[in-house]
Design a protein that fits this description.
163 residues; 0% strand; mainly alpha; elongated
Length: 163
């Protein structure tokens, strides 16, 4: 930019009404480019300012109060979520402990059912099925059924919850 630009009085970016400034801009290539860019930026600013619609004070207040309420609800829910996680971990641990304690009493009826099923299969002439294989099959079915009974409500809760 030339040094003339700062010395010309009234150089507010628009040389339109100032004759000395207009003459300088017409004769100086760098100042002419500067005025061209400044004019384009000013016109763009005016166009953008015309199209901008500021929200009313009521809308601003409503958005701020809604955001504040949502943040307060999230802050209040954090300790509850931690306690729910701890309760779930305790329930899982208690369930594992109960299954461990009850395992012999679960295994005994399954062995009886497997033995009866194996004898009936042999009586009907079906290929010999060992009681141990039958017990293993019944145990697998029981584990799958128990897992389904335990996991179905949990899956439904996770799928249907709002969060």
């Amino acid at each position: 930019m030339s040094g003339q630009w700062q010395r010309v009085p009234g150089n507010r970016g628009n040389p339109g009404n100032n004759v000395a400034l207009r003459q300088h801009v017409d004769g100086c290539p760098s100042c002419r480019d500067l005025v061209t860019v400044a004019t384009a930026l000013r016109d763009e600013h005016e166009l953008a300012s015309r199209d901008a619609h500021l929200p009313t004070s009521g809308q601003v207040w409503w958005r701020a109060s809604t955001r504040t309420r949502a943040e307060a609800a999230a802050t209040a829910a954090r300790p509850i979520l931690v306690l729910q996680g701890l309760a779930g971990a305790c329930a899982a641990g208690l369930s594992a402990a109960l299954v461990t304690l009850a395992w012999p009493s679960i295994l005994q009826p399954l062995a009886g059912i497997a033995d009866i099923t194996s004898r009936e299969a042999q009586r009907l002439g079906v290929a010999a099925v060992s009681a141990a294989a039958m017990q293993q099959a019944l145990l697998s079915v029981a584990v799958v059924a128990a897992a389904g009974l335990i996991l179905t409500p949990l899956i439904l809760y996770l799928v249907l919850s709002d969060d």
